[in-house]
TrEMBL record:
The keyword Transferase is annotated on this UniProt entry: yes
Protein name, as recorded: Aspartate aminotransferase family protein
Species of provenance: Actimicrobium antarcticum
Cofactor (UniProt): pyridoxal 5'-phosphate
Entry keyword set: Aminotransferase, Pyridoxal phosphate, Transferase
C-alpha cells in the first residue's frame, strides 16, 4: 500500500480501510477473501456483457502473440480498419469515420480539436468557443475539464483552458421522479444555447458539447424536445453538435447509441468504456463524413491533415478486444436484453421512492440514479452510503449523494431484486 496514489479517492481513508477486488465473473466481483459483491455498476459503466468473458481474453491473447504493437502514425494494421467498419455499422448513418484513442478523456479532447480544425479548414477560424453545460462530466484532460460542469473539477483546474461557456443543466423539479424523459422545459432549457449565441456571436462558437444523458453527475435524462432543439440551433448557426456518449454508447440507453434512442444525430460522437467490455483501454471519436472530408480535403497533397494522435491509438490488443466485444453484443443480442431488463430495473428501483432519505429515483434504459437527500453537507451521506454498500455486497458508482445504478445487460430479475434489497436495507440503516 506504500507506493500507489489512487485517483478520485480519499487515499488516507482507503489505506485505513481498503476496499479491493480480487477477481470477477459475470455480474459479480469477489473481494480478496472471495466474498461476492454484486456489480450493479457494470464496473464503471464498462462491462455490459459481464466480467471475464473468455472470448475477449482469447482474442487479446492471440493478438499479442501475432502482432503486439503497431504505431498508428504513418502505419496501421487490418484490425483497426475492421473495427472502424464494425462501429460504422452501429452508428447513426453518416457518422462513419472513426479516430481511435484510449480513454474517454482523450476522446473528448480529440473531438474538441477536430471541431477547431474543421472550422479552420473552412476558413472560419474565429470559431474557438465551446458551449457545454452545468453538471457535465467530460473526463479529466484540460479540454474536458474546461467543458466540465462539476464544481470540484472546475474549481481545481477549470480555469486553465478558457473559452468554454455553460448552459443550465437539465434537471427540473417539474420532472421529479419521472422515468425516461420529462415532459417539461426541454425547449426552454435548450434555448440557453440561443442566449449564448446572442451573447457571444455564433461566429465565435465552434461546438456545443453535451452528454445526451448526463451520466456521472447523476443520470439527468434530457426532457422531451431538448436535444432536438439543440440540433436545430446548431444547424442554423453553423455550430457543430458533439454528443459525449462515453457512458451512453453501446446500448446503455436502449439503442446502440443514445443518438438513436432520442432520434437526434450530432456531428461527432465520442465513445469509450463499453467498447471493449472494459477489458482493455480503448475509445473512439466518430465523425461525420462532412466534417472529416472538409478537414482532409483542405490539406495539400502529402500534408498531414490533423496534427493529433497517441502512441496507443488503435492498439492491436485493444482492437482485438473491441472486435470480440462487438461479436458478443451481436451474437447474444445484448442490447435487446438490456432493453428488456430496463423496465424491470426501473420499476424495482422506483419502490425506493417511498424511503424518507430518498430524494428522487430517475433513469432510462439500464442507467438509473437513486438520489439521497443531503444531510446538509453535500456528498457526505452519499460517501458513507458507498462505503456501506461495499460492505453489504453491492458495487455501484456514487457521485455526491447520487447512487448510479448501471447493471450489466446480463443482469437477471433476481439480481435486480437483490440490488434493490441491499440498497433499501443500507438506506434504512443510514443515520437519519
Ligand atoms: C461522459 C464522459 N465523458 C468522458 C469521460 C472520461 O472517460 P475516461 O475516464 O475514460 O477518461 C467519462 C468518464 O466517466 C464520461 O462519463
Amino acid at each position: 500500500m506504500e507506493h500507489q496514489w489512487l485517483p478520485f479517492t480519499p487515499n488516507r481513508e482507503f489505506i485505513a480501510d481498503p476496499k479491493m477486488f480480487g477477481s470477477a465473473k459475470d455480474a459479480w466481483f469477489y473481494d480478496l477473501d472471495g466474498r461476492p459483491i454484486l456489480d450493479a455498476g457494470s464496473g464503471l459503466f464498462t462491462t455490459p456483457a459481464g466480467h471475464c468473458r473468455r472470448e475477449i481474453a482469447d482474442a487479446v491473447y492471440a493478438q499479442l502473440q501475432e502482432l503486439d504493437f503497431t504505431p498508428s502514425f504513418l502505419r496501421s494494421h487490418p484490425k483497426s480498419f475492421m473495427l472502424a467498419n464494425r462501429l460504422a455499422e452501429l452508428l447513426p448513418a453518416g457518422l462513419d469515420k472513426l479516430f481511435f484513442v484510449s480513454s474517454g478523456s482523450e476522446a473528448i479532447d480529440t473531438a474538441m480539436k477536430i471541431c477547431l480544425t474543421y472550422h479552420r479548414a473552412r476558413k472560419d477560424a474565429s470559431r474557438t468557443m465551446f458551449v457545454s453545460r452545468e453538471r457535465a462530466y467530460h473526463g479529466v484532460n484540460f479540454g474536458g475539464v474546461a467543458l466540465a460542469g462539476m464544481i470540484n473539477n472546475r474549481r481545481h483546474f477549470g480555469g486553465i483552458v478558457t473559452g468554454a461557456v455553460h448552459m443550465r443543466h437539465t434537471w427540473l423539479p417539474d420532472n421529479l421522479n419521472v422515468t425516461g424523459q420529462g415532459l417539461h422545459g426541454g425547449r426552454e432549457l435548450a434555448d440557453d444555447l440561443l442566449r449564448l449565441i446572442q451573447l457571444h456571436g455564433a461566429e465565435n462558437i465552434a461546438a456545443c458539447v453535451v452528454e445526451p444523458v448526463a451520466g456521472s453527475t447523476g443520470v439527468l435524462v434530457p426532457p422531451v424536445g431538448y436535444l432536438e432543439r439543440l440540433r436545430e440551433l446548431c444547424t442554423a448557426h453553423g455550430i457543430l453538435l458533439v454528443f459525449d456518449e462515453v457512458i451512453c454508447g453501446f446500448g446503455r440507453t436502449g439503442e446502440n447509441f443514445a443518438s438513436q434512442t432520442f432520434g437526434v444525430t450530432p456531428d461527432i460522437i465520442t465513445m469509450a468504456k463499453a467498447i471493449t467490455n472494459g477489458a482493455i483501454p480503448m475509445a473512439a471519436v466518430a465523425v461525420s463524413r462532412t466534417v472529416h472530408d472538409t478537414i482532409v480535403n483542405a490539406a495539400a497533397d502529402g500534408a498531414i491533415e490533423f496534427f493529433h494522435g497517441y502512441t496507443w491509438s488503435a492498439h492491436p490488443a485493444a482492437c482485438a478486444a473491441a472486435l470480440a466485444t462487438l461479436d458478443i453484443y451481436r451474437d447474444d443480442d445484448l442490447f435487446a436484453r438490456g432493453r428488456a431488463m430496463s423496465p424491470i430495473l426501473l420499476d424495482a428501483l422506483g419502490s425506493l421512492r417511498e424511503l424518507p432519505l430518498v430524494a428522487e429515483v430517475r433513469g432510462i434504459g439500464m442507467l438509473a440514479c437513486v438520489e439521497l437527500k443531503s444531510d446538509g453537507a453535500p456528498g457526505r451521506r452519499g460517501h458513507l452510503f458507498q462505503k456501506r454498500l461495499y460492505d453489504a455486497g453491492l458495487h455501484l458508482k456514487t457521485t455526491g449523494d447520487n447512487a448510479i445504478v448501471s447493471p450489466p445487460f446480463i443482469f437477471t430479475a433476481e439480481q435486480v431484486a437483490q440490488t434493490v434489497q441491499i440498497l433499501k436495507q443500507t438506506i434504512l440503516e443510514l443515520p437519519q
